[in-house]
Amino acid sequence: MREAVQDPISARLYEKPQTPGINLHFEELVNASPVAIYTCDAQGYITYYNPAAVNLWGRAPKLGEDLWCGSWKIYHTDGKPMPLNECPMARTLKEGRSFEAAEITIERPDHTFRNLLVFPRPVFDEKNVIIGAHNTLVDITDQKYGEEKQAILSAIVESSDDAIISKSLDGIITSWNAGAEKIFGYTENEIIGKHISTLIPLSLRDEEDLIIGNIRAGKKVDHFQTVRVHRSGREIQISLTVSPVKNSYGKIIGASKIARDISESLAAEKKIRQSAERLQILNNIGKVISEKLDVQSILQHVTDATTRITGAAFGAFFYNTIDERDESYTLFTLSGASREAFEKFGMPRNTAVFESTFSGRSVVRVADIRLDPRYGHNSPNHGMPEGRLPVVSYLAVPVISSSGTVIGGLFFGHPDAGVFTEEHEDLVSSISSQAAIALDNSKLFEDVKALSAKKDEFIALASHELKTPLTSIKGYLQVLQRTERDQLGKTFISKTLNQIEKLNDLVTDLLDVSRIEAGKLALEKVMFNLDELILEVVENLSYTHESHRIIFDRGNPVMIYADRQRIEQVLINLLTNAVKYSPQANQVWVYLKSSEKDVTVKIKDQGIGLTNEQQKHIFTRFYRAEGTSNIAGLGLGLYLTKEIVERHQGCIGVKSEADKGAEFYFTIPLN
Ligand code: ADP
Fold first, then answer.
1. Any residues with Cβ below 6 Å from ligand 1, and which?
2. Which ligand 1 atom is at minimum distance from the Cα of 640?
3. 611 C-alpha to ligand 1 centroid (Å)
4. pTM surpassing 0.70?
5. d(Cα 166, Cα 168) in Å, to the nearest integer?
6. Which of 24, 273, 300, 557 has the most CB atoms in a 10 Å sphere around its CB?
7. pLDDT tens for residues 228-279?
8. What per-residue string of b and e applies to 603-633 under the rule 16 or more CB within 10 Å gives b?
9. DSSP string of 232-294?
């Protein structure tokens, strides 16, 4: 470094100023400077550089060897490489002129880049001959980066769809981007300098104090959903994020606001919610009406749900029935208005408006029924009677059965105009077709019920009418049997009596069935010994059913409180079945088992048995398993048996497999 100081340029550089009183050591000053400085001789050889220059270059050039610049590589600002002999210092020496703030980029040996402003200046001797030059290098990399960042940020702000606004702490708008213009409708020129409350609806002005309060406290307001006003006065749903803006000393000087227009997404959300709600309602209605078979609840559900969906003030279902005077339809269900209120005003009559619905022609949807050409033609009112439920918006959907008959109509009304939309029309139409199917089913069900009631009535009548002549025939035959002398005649009478007995049993069963259906099967309970009753039945049947041996496993004597005759009927039914349905076998077993709680009787045979499927049906009326048509029976015995057992709070069941015999059992509680 000593040598460098002796160099004429450096020596000149460090020449002490001649000002008296100031005694600065220039070499020290230049060495301590944070700004990079170096010198070259007239040939361009570097003769001096300070530590800041080494720091900037990332290397230390060799004095007297390296030419023009200590940088490892030099570039123009556009990134093109700059030959060393064209660098500003080289040009200063060659052209003998200064460069003011020439901008270059240098690359350091570690491949990092710096942006520099260079200030090379020629140094002349007394004769004005160039003896070298000095250069000052100012590192502007950080500043440049800051500028770039600023430019990027501005571009982002400008291109954002969100409104990005800044305001002072007293609410004056200080910046306004294109997004803000799009959302709020004001241009930058119009709004800058105005108060932020320009954008806030009157009713929400307090919000601003709250937001500013937060900002002053250094708090951010995040995703705050609120309403702001467009230049046109239209309200906009927005989501607002407000953050404090601080100056370089950290003092809060204002706020930045980002506002996003969420009107559309809120509307979309609302639509989705509505659709989900409607689907749910549709689903519920579908479920309810497919489960229900009674007309009243089907139609009430349908009327309530459709009134809710359409947002109607009230809704009603009217049956398509007109009275003798061809006047009114019948109100069946109502939603949203009281029946009294409705009935007071009279039923819809056979007018032009209603006729389109009840003729099933089409849906009628009118924004304002008072303006409809079909409206107001009927005297005496010529329109809505005074005081009637106020209807302006009107929707009517016919309910048409699969046969094409118009069952009735769903009617909706609202006091405001234009309430019902096409979507409402579609929804109600689809519900109405579902309802029509349910109503058809319900009608079928009602028809079947009516038929079944007729059949029960017939059975009751027929069995009663049969019983009387049978009893007489039986009486006469018994008298004849006693008086008949002829052996053959005796045999015939006995056989006839047997058949009469069978016929009598069948008729008795039929009578019992009709009693059960009418809820008139009375029990006469007494205490009796069950094992004795079984023994008695087994003995009697052994006479009449000689083909089989009935083996009774008696167990302990057991007293039960029950209807003796009905329990006897149960035993006879099960035992005769066991014999009847085991034609190939010759034995039947009866077991009696009792516990403290109950008593169980099992009747087992080795007959044709029952499949699982058959077992599911054998206790229903008139059911007979397939393949048993050659065995006499009506399919009523087990139905009656089950009914009797259950009337004693007992239960009955069967265990069986096809061709493996059957075991019927019933249990009756002792208490
Ligand atoms: P019915 O014997 O008059 O036909 P039931 O009500 O007593 O009427 O019996 C209903 C049906 O159950 C019978 O038709 C028969 O198919 C079946 N069934 C009843 N008992 C037996 C049994 N022990 N083994 C096989 N099938 C039986």
1. 573, 577-578, 581, 605, 607-610, 618, 623-625, 628, 633-639, 662
2. 6
3. 12
4. no
5. 7
6. 300
7. 999 999 999 999 999 888 887 888 888 888 998 898 888 898 888 888 887 8
8. bbbbbbbbeeebbeebbebeebbeeeeeeeb
9. TS-EEEEEEEEEEEE-TTS-EEEEEEEEEE-HHHHHHHHHHHHHHHHHHHHHHHHHHHHH---
Residue of the nearest CA to atom 19 in ligand 1?
A: 577
612 alpha carbon – ligand 1 mean position (Å):
14
**Distance, CA 23 to ligand 1 centroid (Å)?**
136
Which of 502, 507, 545, 618 is the best mutation target for the ligand 1 pocket, counting ligand atoms within 8 Å of the beta carbon and taking the most? 618
What are 204-234's pLDDT values in tens digits?
888 888 888 888 888 888 888 999 999 999 9
Residues 6+ apart with CB under 8 A from 46: 38, 39, 40, 61, 62, 63, 64, 65, 66, 67, 68, 69, 70
Name all domains of the chain by residue range, CATH numbers in brackets: 8-144 (3.30.450.20), 160-261 (3.30.450.20), 271-520 (3.30.450.40), 525-669 (3.30.565.10)
Region of 56 please: left (phi>0), alpha (psi -120 to 50) or beta. Answer: alpha
Ligand 1 pocket mutation, candidates 601, 638, 643, 655, criterion most atoms within 8 A of CB: 638
CA dihedral 343, 346, 348, 351 (to 10 degrees): 180
